Amino acid sequence: MPHPSDPSTPQELLANWSPESWRDFDALQQPAFDEQEDLDRVVSQLRQYPPLVTPWEIDRLQGQLAEASVGKRFLLQGGDCAERFDECRGDVIANRLKVLLQMSLVLIYGLRLPVIRVGRFAGQYAKPRSSDFEGRNGQQLPAYRGDMVNAPEFGREARRPAPERMLTAYERSAMTLNYIRALGEGGFSDLHHPENWDLGFVTSDKLRDEYQGIVDSILEALRFMEAVSPSPISDTDRVSFYTSHEALILPYEEALTREADGSAWNLSTHFPWIGKRTNEPEGAHVEYARGIRNPIGLKIGPDTSKSDLRTLLDVLNPGHLPGRITLITRFGANGIEGVLPGLIKEVRSAGHSVLWSCDPMHGNTETLSNGLKTRRFENILAELEQAFDIHHACGSVLGGVHLELTGENVTECTGGARGLQEKDLLEHYESRVDPRLNAEQALELAFSIVRKCRSMRNGS
Ligand code: PEP
Ligand code: CO
After folding, report:
1. Is residue 224 in some structural domain?
2. In sequence order, what E strands does 226-324 have?
3. Is 0.85 topped by the overall pTM?
4. Cα dist. 374→44, 433, 436 in Å?
5. Residue 267, SS3 per DSSP
6. In a domain, 429, yes or no
7. How far, in whole angstroms, is CA 133 from its chain's centroid?
8. Is the CB of 324 under 6 A from ligand 1?
9. Contact criterion met (CB below 8 Å) for 427 and 214
10. Phi and psi at residue 51, to the nearest 5°
């Protein structure tokens, strides 16, 4: 890997990169496939498949992320911790879109900013794990790494990493995206269809009233504009979604990397991110990501050193392109204050400009005595509010949030308007990996963001 003090131009630095150059680096979190031949067959099949997204969509997203980095837009990135093959269903997809749409409406109205909607969907099928193996009753089996790799049931065959699952992941991603695009084109997010904006899941009257107030005033403004405008307002009432996933299983990402306009693009998603467990500057994931033209999300945590962060930015964005890097911070409510200010200063002194986004989920995970993983709404909110304050105090901008949420009525995180407690969690606990906000908690968080930003603007 080139050293950051190397005087080469960004173009020269790419001369030693190719979609497969990551293979010469240490690749963490990769499944141990039994047969190289099976993997090669799957990869060559994936290479034949059509792209899922286009370079011009990716370019447009990068421009919007650049605007968010200077406070002219707000990034809302959210979705499941891991998608499941058996949840590639119309109702699940539509419900997830609905909650993201409703949150974005609250944010647009409350922040007076355009919102970039990015789903953790249509490809979020692989998970990094802290341990390669899981033991139960004296038996050791490979850990579940997401439906793209193996199955969650605790059995030898289920846990065998199967390369053909990558083909299924591609197919489910394509089906998901197809439905999302169809809903968008078909006017799903058109404000004139209030049935898509209703709050079936919300039990709190306060939240309901607050939300309905926003929908009513937007509808009123729309009617007014339609009354005075000769043509229908199509751009205001159509909403687009971008896709994102963790670029974890590198043979898959490599196979969907295509050349266009003299650049390499990962056309399986608009916005790939590098997870915290694979973000080391000398590693294969960073090597892969440095050569693709997509905007890159980079997760950083309490153990990310200032010097590593500087190296990562130099390697991933030697040309200092605006919107290229989104730093997704996940420190935990107790850790953020000690770490974030120093990292903000480091990025500035390195001469980089990034979009800062806060992931208040992954630093706040707890395991209960019954083995369930959960997160407390108050800790999620506390990290988010501190992130706003710290950026503000450092003269920086928090331009986005990264959340794990679902449109289903699950009970995985405690707290929120309905006051979910630990004893309620088993009612609808469905996640096989991390606990998600349910739709009501997610909407409540959107209102909290608005409240926080307004109080900052008012100087209180
Ligand atoms: C995730 O986003 O699901 C995840 C594993 O996060 P992180 O890399 O920040 O731990
Ligand atoms: Co997660």
Report:
1. no
2. 242-246, 257-260, 263-266, 271-274, 296-300
3. yes
4. 40, 10, 8
5. coil
6. yes
7. 26
8. no
9. no
10. -60, 155
Sign of the alpha-carbon torsion through 359, 361, 365, 371: negative
Q: Please count the structural domains in the chain.
A: 1
The residues, ordered by sequence, that sit 6+ positions from 46 with a Cβ below 8 Å of its Cβ are 166, 167, 170, 252, 255, 256
Residue 225 has which token pair? 């504009």
Extract the tokens encoding 454.
């307004």
What is the 21 CA–ligand 2 centroid distance (Å)?
Answer: 28
Q: Which residue's entry shows tokens 């939300």? A: 211
Tens digit of each residue's pLDDT (9 = 90 or more) over 67-96: 999 999 999 999 999 999 999 999 999 999
* Structural domain contains residue 274: yes
198 dihedral zone (left: phi>0; alpha: psi -120 to 50; beta): beta
CA nearest neighbour of 248 among 438, 12, 16, 28 = 28
The residues whose Cβ lies within 5 A of ligand 2, an ion, are 81, 434
DSSP conformation letters of 365-386: -EE-TTS-EE-BHHHHHHHHHH
Least confident of 88-92, 102-106, 235-239: 235-239
Does residue 227 lie in a domain region?
no
- Which residue lies with its CA nearest to atom 4 of ligand 1? 275
Q: Which of 268, 96, 113, 51 is nearest to 189 (CA)?
A: 96
| CA-to-CA dists, residue 84 to 75, 148, 163, 269, 433, angstroms | 25, 9, 16, 17, 11
Contacts (Cβ under 8 Å, ≥6 apart) of 77: 118, 119, 120, 244, 271, 297, 357, 400, 401, 402, 403
CATH number at residue 420: 3.20.20.70
Which structure tokens are listed for 78?
A: 């959210």
* Under 8 Å between Cβ of 92 and 405: no
Which pair of tokens denotes residue 297?
A: 């999300």
Report CA(147)–ligand 2 centroid distance (Å). 14
Rounded to the nearest angstrom, the distance between the alpha carbon of 395 and the centre of ligand 2 is 30
What is the chain's mean pLDDT, rounded?
92
With bands split at pLDDT 50, 70 and 90, how would you rate the model's confidence at 7? low
**Beta strand pairing call for 366-367 and 115-120:** unpaired
Q: Among all ligands shown, which has an atom nearest to the Cα of 275?
A: 1
Q: Whose C-alpha lies nearest to ligand 1, atom 3?
A: 81
Q: How confident is the model at residue 236 (pLDDT cuts 50, 70, 90)?
A: very low
Which residue range(s) make up the domain with 303? 10-189+241-457
Q: What is the pLDDT of residues 179-219, one digit of tens each?
A: 999 988 877 767 666 666 677 777 788 888 888 888 888 77
